Amino acid sequence: MDETTRTVLQRVVRKVPATRLREVLRTWGRVPARQLDLLDFSTSKFVLFEDVRSLCEVNSNRLTLKHVCELEMIYFIGNPAQGVWRACHLTEPDDDVMTVELRQFKEQFKARLTELISNVSVKIKKHDDEAVWIRIAWGDHFHRPNQLKPTYVVHHLQTPYVFVYNLSTKHKPLLYQALVLATRHGSMKDSHLSGKSLTSIRDFLMRSYQQAFPTKYARPLQEKNTAPTNPNIEKEHAEQEEKRLQLACEAFGEGNVPRLETATYKLETRYRGSGNETLNNREEPFRALIKFSSANLLVSLNHCVSAGMAETPVTPLLSSITQKGKNYFVITDKGSGNSSQSMVQKK
Amino acid sequence: MMTLSERFPGFVRGVSTGGSISISRPGRDMDAARTQGVFSHLHLLERGALGLIPQEDPAQNDRVDDLKAVIHTLRARRDELRVQADRTRELRHSIDKGDFLDEEDYRTGENSEIRAALLTAKQTELKKLLKAHHLIGGYDLIETQPGKRFCVSLHTAYEGTYCTTYHLELDLTRTVQVVRHDVPPSMPLDTLVQQNLQTNLPAFLHSLSLHLNALTSRQQQIVLVKDQIKSVDVLESNQLCSVLVLLCRGPKQQDPETLVTLLYRDLTSELPTQVTVESEDDALPNSPQWKKSKTLLLDQPVHKALEIMNKTGVIA
Amino acid sequence: MEQEYEEEIQKLREEIAFLQAEKENDEREIAKQHGDNINHILESISKKLEMEGGRLRQDKVSKLVYDIQKLEQDLLRQTRINGIVLTDVCEKTTEKSEDKCVQQHRITGHCLDLTFQVEFEVTETMTDDTFLRRVTDLNIVVDGNEFKDISSLVSRVEESKSLLLFFRTLRDVSEKCALRKKTFNHFKERCPDVISLPNGSQSEVMVIKSPKLPRCTISILWKINTTNGGVITPKIELLMEMHEKALSPDNKKVLENAPDAFQSLLRVFGVEAAIENIIKTVGV
Question: Residue A179's domain spans which residues?
């Protein structure tokens, strides 16, 4: 086992919680299950690493970096909530975009990326849920790929969505170009959406959560689920309450909504109120950053509206989160002399 | 801070530059938000007074209480309905006998009941007609902002089973625009919008409905393949179900496995436009029975084609 | 104890469904029998309300009138966007419990020239919070023998109970039928001596008989086929019937090639111009 392989293996063993390690190693399949059962997963990570390493060396005499990277991917695919994921959008699809299939994509992507940068190691794995996972370790002319800080990319074939984890600005254009070519698109841009949970931002962007729309026809059997109420009690404000709840659900979804943690608004606007001379007539735009944060932002916003804490109808600034599928906005004045302000996407 | 309070009504009060506002996650779910307040409290008190508050086995008592409450509500509803139904029948007879209605009668108190009955009849008829439109898959147009915005529903079904309903909210203020929707994002909605949303709304809805129903159909077919054809594995598919890769096994143990790829380029169709067959045994895809199977796969929904292939011994 | 309560609930639900149906049935009969009277009443009341400045009065009748006006507006809107006019509906609940509901419906209406009566049964079930609505029986009658185009569709959707598919396709088929009728009638009016429509203007055949070619009959066969998924594919063909002796070898060749030539014309000029061209060629 060479030095890099050893270091990566050590990192994985350290990173994976002891309770999960057995399962991850089993899925990996490089060590027989029988021997795994004999390991003591309650000892220190240092001892555990030495045990795992020796088991690996005994069982496969040529354990390479490739195998260890696979182990890391297995853990990462199962536990993707370890940092910030950013969503990107492929645009200008070619006519044959629908025919891109896995084998072709793998070949194309690897070929394109290695054309662009010489020292890079790429590993691609298809997950059960139709997502393609890519692990990239970057190097340059003078350095071998850094296996300890890989970039992860998740893409669903035949969709325009890409989710990226741990990508530096230096490597961004390279990755974008390789992806654009391999998926047969014209270009790729940032979606201004990020979050800790990959599944959440994916569901959010691909709209696979329940959105509320007005309807006239309640399902006849739905009465089953509503709590029985006393027929003698009539709610005075039931109608308004119902309306607020409906508007809140229309703006922020209902039921199990994807978990977003933040919404950020960067303001670059001018002050147009009266009576404050220091703020009026300033040359420079007024800059401010407003950040909403919550364990589950959409539920919080929904609650604020349905409980009457925030006004209805919901301001477009907030409903834009779901409508545009973004949680980062830059707001600027549309033009001088124009009193209506609009939201302009950051270029 | 300038127009901020307009932008974030209810949120931004006295926030300084760069400030951060945290909203804690509410502890209750949305249903609780609906029922909380004075009335639920009153309800609780009432139950307490009636001795309905659980004492020993809370789960058991809760269930019985709920049932009692349901019975109470249903009885009241039935009694009310019975009175109404009887009255309607009486009115129908008296109307049929013709003891009513000349212009003068409208103003007298006596016939206002008959007048109301006639109008209620009309109201019921209209409601039934509207519900029928809904049942046969109408677009269920709802105005969300008078004259400006409306919402349409696109119902899908696979054979007799009603499946997902998709929605679009449209804005008519200047040009017709899609405000929001829950159509799957891989659907070529933008193309359809460009084709005829401005010029011909029914045509636009019709073609979108064709797309969505074909999608439902392809989705259901995959479910049926997984359910009914145990020897076949679905290796690959996507959100639009425009690609389907199947691993088929021959009826005998030693038969080579076959990879069948179906491409659905026509998104308004439930049938594939291209079928390719690959196998370790190069001769197999060109064998007469596989050639026949290819035609079958192009002509029939995939689960039906596979079923026939299974019966004729092409696959296990 | 629980068992008894549940049974009572079930009984109550059925009773309610029955009473509801009874009441609605009486109401429907009233509405049917006295439609004119109702419209008369509606008119006079809304006039009165208007005179009072359109202010909504709080009494029961004014509320009803207001509600009816809204419903009528809504119905008009749905009819327009759905392209289907419903004239009569009848609904009957045959089973009703907490997690199952079976209803039979009979719907009469028309879509452009096509009139239909559709009977269907809808079964709604609730299992583990999953709501399922299915058409469990479907019976369709479409009026007019000349509509050959729709009959294959009808038998197919009846078999698979595809109620929604039927109505989605019906709209499209009737539009295509209307276009065909319009086109056929147009030519019939322009050249009544040459053109005949042997099965009526709603059928798929138009016959051209030229006085210059007395032994030769040209038929335009315009079929409107539907695929299983409800996509309409109109197919227009030109058929020739002729007596050998009637033609010189040159003319014969021209006419033999006519069906193919017609297809090219269709592709280039569209239906109307292509037929126009054929009529001209036979010398009218």
Answer: 85-205
